[in-house]
Amino acid sequence: MIEAALLAKVMGQVSSRPQIADDELVRHLRATFPGVHFSVCSDDDMPPKLPAAAGNDYCRLYYVDSGDHCLKLTTDAAAATGLVVALCDQDEP
To answer: Where are the domains positioned within the chain?
Structure first.
C-alpha cells in the first residue's frame, strides 16, 4: 500500500533535485524510501488516459502493483507496491 503522505514526500524529493539524472534519482529514491519500488521515465511515456496518483510542476506519480509476479500500472493505492516517477518536461510553458 502506498500512503498519500509518501506521495507528497516523493514529490518533494524530486522537486528539490530537478536536474539530477534519471538513474541517480532512482538510486536516491530507493535509498530514501527503502522497500518501495521506483521507476523513472518521461511523463510523455505514460498512457494519456491513466490518471496520475499525484503530481506537481516537476513530476507525476503513478502506482505500480507487483502482485502476481508481474509489474503493472494501477490506480489502486491499496494494491500499489511502488511508483513510477514520470518527469515533466521543464522546457514546456
So the answer is: 4-87
CA distances from 32 to 14, 42, 68, 91, 93 (A): 12, 21, 26, 28, 31
93 — pLDDT class (breaks 50, 70, 90): very low
In 1-93, which ranges are continuous DSSP H helix? 4-15, 22-32
Output the pTM of the full model.
0.90
Distances in Å between the Cα of 84 and the Cα atoms of 43, 52, 93 are 10, 10, 23
pLDDT band, residue 7 (cuts 50/70/90): very high
